[in-house]
Write a structure and sequence with these properties.
Helices cover 39% and strands 20% of the residues. The protein is an alpha/beta fold and 295 residues long. The chain has two domains: 64 residues; 198 residues, Vaccinia Virus protein VP39 (Rossmann fold, 3-Layer(aba) Sandwich). β1 and β2 form a beta hairpin. The longest helix has 15 residues. 36% of the residues are buried.
Length: 295
């Protein structure tokens, strides 16, 4: 591609052709996305300004971004941000890219918040990553959030997102392995535990798309040979932290509903257990209510 004399329309055709030849999924939409970010404009402006010439700098940026995408790097990492519940979260390869399925977990938490009565809620977010769950909860309903992660780089990213989005005063980010980072004072006093833990099986790890396998952090994906290593721990350890009637909301793998229901059902800590389905009708979120007695 020449770095001068190219119109917006021609740049779109070029980008679409390059992505199509490389068999990049959704090449048309992705070519528009690439150009929208390079030109810092909205989609309709691409077509309103179809005859505008790209500057040499814009053409250079488009070529660089397209080359990274052709290498199967996700667009979110190329441009450094991902949308979650209408907010732009900064992301790097230190954290997972937020997914629409995880938004359902936050939606369910918001729906359940009034059941705990008036006043501020206490929430724990395990495996916080980019902080998308913790920050969204802090901003969307009145709560204090304690968010943990074993990765220091992930926590740095989460803290930055909380600061950028105005939630820094409501979220405490703690370094450690699951509940090992949580203060003892929260035992029996937490209203909800929210988490999107690692749950990919050893077999499924090998078959992941290059965008995931080669770029997203394996530590945040791999859940052991059956994908349930971290899930087992969370199911076992959560009841000690919940108030009576408190909730565990946990994202799970597409084929793990039966196993997770059995794990939660075998625990003495829950009174009501169900699996919520995602937009595709796949069981995606474990919802389990604590039956522990007040301490």
């Amino acid at each position: 591609m020449e770095e001068h004399g190219l119109t917006v329309s021609e740049a779109l055709v070029w980008a679409f052709g390059e992505l199509s030849k490389a068999l990049i999924p959704f090449a048309r939409g992705e070519s528009e996305f690439l150009l929208m970010h390079v030109l810092n404009c909205r989609r309709h402006e691409l077509f309103l300004n179809a005859r505008r010439l790209l500057t040499p700098q814009e053409a250079h940026l488009l070529r660089e971004a397209a080359a990274r995408r052709l290498n199967r790097e996700p667009l979110q990492y190329i441009f450094g941000e991902a949308e979650f519940r209408g907010r732009a979260f900064k992301v790097t390869r230190a954290v997972l890219i937020p997914r629409p399925e995880t938004e359902l977990l936050v939606e369910e938490a918001i729906k359940e918040a009034p059941s705990f009565g008036a006043g501020s809620l206490t929430i724990i977010d395990l495996c916080t990553g980019s902080g998308c769950i913790a920050v969204s909860a802090a901003l969307e309903f009145q709560c204090e959030v304690f968010a943990t992660d074993i990765s220091e780089k992930a926590l740095d990213m989460a803290r930055e997102n909380a600061q950028r989005l105005g939630a820094a005063q409501r979220v405490s980010f703690l370094s450690g392995d699951l509940f090992g980072a949580i203060p003892e004072k929260l035992k029996g006093r937490t209203h909800m535990v929210l988490t999107n833990p690692p749950y990919i099986t050893e077999k499924d790890m090998a078959g992941l798309a290059p965008e995931v396998k080669d770029f997203e952090p394996g530590q945040a994906l791999y859940g052991g040979s059956d994908g349930l290593d971290i899930i087992r721990r969370i199911i076992t350890e959560t009841p000690a932290y919940l108030v009576p009637g408190g909730l565990l909301l946990m994202e799970i793998g597409y084929d793990q509903s039966e196993a997770v229901l059995m794990l939660a059902g075998n625990s003495a800590g829950y009174s009501h257990i169900e699996i919520l389905k995602d937009y595709a009708g796949i069981g995606r979120i474990l919802k389990a209510r604590s039956k522990q007695q007040a301490r």
